[in-house]
């Protein structure tokens, strides 16, 4: 079952060298375990999504250039679809951004 994406969920770009986290700024009242839920509007470069290290396409800083989140939930928060851990976002440079693990899935063993 898909999980909700919340603030600080880890993201990866298949063309980058490091992971980053999402910063939720699209809404300020819906949260899970004290972390704001992400929506399809959380895609601003260097605001919501930080660089992913070095880009294998550009051979320089992997600054995200997100186009649109796909596979978002039908549930909306203030008219914006909420993100789930099955969502991906195409980068205009050529990469694909995806969720590594939603915070809800972190389990210490």
Q: Largest sheet at a glance?
A: 5 strands, antiparallel
Radius of gyration over alpha carbons? 13 Å
Query: How many independent structural domains?
Result: 1
What is the approximate shape?
elongated
**Tally of helical segments:** 0
Q: What level of helicity do the residues show?
A: under 10%
Low-confidence regions = 105-109
CATH third-tier fold name: Tumour Suppressor Smad4
What CATH first level would be assigned? Mainly Beta
Listing every helix as H and every strand as E from the N terminus to the C terminus, the arrangement reads EEEEEEEEE
Organism: Chryseobacterium fistulae
Pfam family, one: DUF4280
InterPro entries: DUF4280 (IPR025460)
Protein name: DUF4280 domain-containing protein
Key structural traits:
single chain; 109 residues; mainly beta; Tumour Suppressor Smad4; five-stranded antiparallel beta sheet; two-stranded antiparallel sheet; elongated; disordered C terminus; DUF4280 domain-containing protein; DUF4280
Write a brief caption for the model.
With 109 residues, the chain is mainly β. The protein is built from no helices and nine strands.
Q: Strands, helices and their partners?
A:
Blueprint: E1 10-13, E2 20-21, E3 31-32, E4 35-36, E5 66-70, E6 76-77, E7 80-81, E8 88-91, E9 96-101
Antiparallel strand pairs: 1-2, 1-9, 3-4, 5-8, 6-7, 8-9
Protein name: DUF4280 domain-containing protein
InterPro entries: DUF4280
Pfam family, one: DUF4280
Describe this protein's structure.
The protein is mainly beta and 109 residues long. The chain has one domain (1-101): Tumour Suppressor Smad4. It contains no helices and 9 strands. It has strands at residues 10-13, 20-21, 31-32, 35-36, 66-70, 76-77, 80-81, 88-91, 96-101. It has a 5-stranded antiparallel sheet with strand order 2-1-9-8-5, with no helix packed on it. It has a two-stranded antiparallel sheet with strand order 3-4. A two-stranded antiparallel ribbon has the order 6-7. Strand 6 and strand 7 form a beta hairpin. The radius of gyration is 13 Å and the shape is elongated. The model is unreliable at 105-109 (pLDDT under 50).
């Amino acid at each position: 079952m898909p999980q909700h994406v919340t603030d600080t969920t880890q993201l990866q770009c298949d063309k980058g060298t490091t992971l980053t986290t999402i910063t939720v700024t699209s809404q300020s009242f819906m949260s899970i375990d004290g972390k704001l839920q992400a929506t399809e509007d959380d895609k601003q470069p260097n605001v919501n999504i930080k660089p992913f290290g070095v880009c294998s396409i550009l051979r320089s800083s992997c600054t995200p250039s997100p186009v649109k989140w796909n596979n978002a939930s039908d549930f909306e928060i203030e008219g914006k679809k909420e993100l789930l851990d099955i969502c991906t976002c195409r980068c205009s440079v050529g990469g694909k951004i995806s969720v590594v693990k939603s915070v809800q899935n972190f389990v210490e063993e």
